[in-house]
Design brief:
The protein is of the alpha+beta class. The chain contains 13 helices and 7 strands.
């Protein structure tokens, strides 16, 4: 058992097996299960690159220096570059559900480092090779960990975000050790095939972290899928604003704050002549008009405001800490911007306008429905008075 514990080649082979199986599992998730396919493919690539890095490292003394030394080191750096590129997408929210892989920032670090170690000779003093390789991989890992922490912290409780990102910071610490060792023991070279306590301990840690990092990535992908499902249940599939249910919940929450002296107002919006637009230009044009309308309206709302689609061509805006006069100003700005926008479809143009109804919540309102009804009445009053107007009940 002692021999097994201290045999670098056996440990190297075990680590290769762990990463190979991990890469295969991610590949199946991407191509068969279709779970976050672009991210899963990136993680499959990272596992594959590290497997190849370890395999080429094991050929030192048998294969050419370009393959066994430079090739192995570049593949190891490319592993962390891939992880860094994939990480921002793990928690990304997007209406399309597609993840953007951040290759540019990863390549900015990888390519100069690969060129630098190609220029340095692989003989004699290899301290600078170690410092460049582990310095770059350390930075890439810290960038990945920072991205994961910031994005998860915005969507999850702090303790959950910390638990999910902790293994990435552990890997950063793990990469820091050889870097420090190159300064403390300048005569020592980093070689996984060397049978010394530091190298063997590093290999055991690498084996354990291989399992840990793949499990962590699986949890992060699962968290992303759950967040996407939650988003889909609260968002309108066409416009990506809040759906009726989510908006109603937000209004009810705001109405509960009304009892603590925090006012709010509602703006009801109904697109003018929308049926004629659909009839004359088609439903695809109608969808495009709604998307443009949402883009114009969104410019006028604050971060604390909530814009939602009630159905068809009808929208509503929740304005916390806003009175009737403030709501009327917001609605008028929306009305003006919408009227000034130009909608074109297949060479045809159509004037985009809407009718707006505003209402402020009152202390005597038993529920938010009363406020909604007043805003709705204001909107119908605007319709009756010629459309493209802002009115209160």
């Amino acid at each position: 058992m002692n021999g097994l514990n201290s045999d670098p080649l056996t440990l190297l082979a075990a680590a290769m097996l762990v990463y190979f199986v991990g890469g295969l599992a991610w590949l199946l998730l991407a191509l068969v299960a279709r779970v976050a396919p672009r991210i899963s493919l990136g993680l499959a690539l990272a596992n594959g690159l590290l497997t190849a890095a370890l395999a080429t490292h094991s050929l030192r003394g048998q294969a050419s220096a370009w393959l066994a030394f430079w090739g192995s080191d570049v593949l190891a750096m490319a592993t962390l570059a891939t992880l860094r590129a994939v990480m921002p997408a793990l928690s990304e929210e997007s209406a399309s559900g597609k993840a953007t892989i951040a290759w540019r920032s990863a390549l900015i670090l990888l390519l100069p480092a690969a060129a630098a170690i190609a220029w340095l000779p692989y003989e004699g003093d290899l301290r600078w090779h170690t410092r460049i390789i582990f310095g770059v991989t350390l930075v890439l890992t810290l960038l990945a960990a920072g991205d994961a922490w910031r994005q998860l912290r915005a969507r999850l409780a702090p303790h959950l975000a910390a638990q999910l990102t902790a293994p990435l910071f552990v890997i950063a610490l793990f990469l820091l050790l050889p870097l420090i060792n190159s300064f403390i023991r300048p005569s020592a070279t980093f070689d996984l095939l060397a049978a010394n306590k530091f190298q063997v301990g590093w290999l055991w840690s690498m084996l354990a972290l291989g399992l840990l990092i793949n499990a962590t990535m699986a949890l992060l992908v699962l968290a992303r899928v759950i967040l996407q499902i939650q988003r889909l249940t609260r968002r309108d599939p066409l416009t990506d604003v809040l759906n009726r249910r989510a908006l109603s919940e937000a209004i009810d929450d705001e109405h509960a704050r009304l009892q603590r002296g925090k006012p709010y107002a509602l703006v009801m919006i109904d697109m003018d002549h929308f049926k004629q637009l659909n009839d004359s230009m088609g439903h695809a044009a109608g969808d495009a008009a709604l998307l443009q309308a949402v883009q114009v309206l969104s410019v006028c709302v604050r971060d604390v405001d909530r814009l939602g689609r009630l159905g068809g061509e009808e929208f509503c805006v929740l304005l916390p800490l806003t009175d009737l006069a403030g709501a009327a100003l917001v609605a008028e700005r929306m009305r003006h911007n919408l009227e000034a926008s130009s909608f074109a479809w297949q060479g045809k143009t159509w004037p985009l306008t809407a009718s707006f109804g505003v209402a402020e919540a009152q202390a005597e309102d038993v529920s938010a429905d009363a406020v909604l009804q007043r805003a709705d009445k204001g909107m119908y009053r605007a319709k009756a008075q010629g459309r493209n107007l802002v009115q209160e009940a």
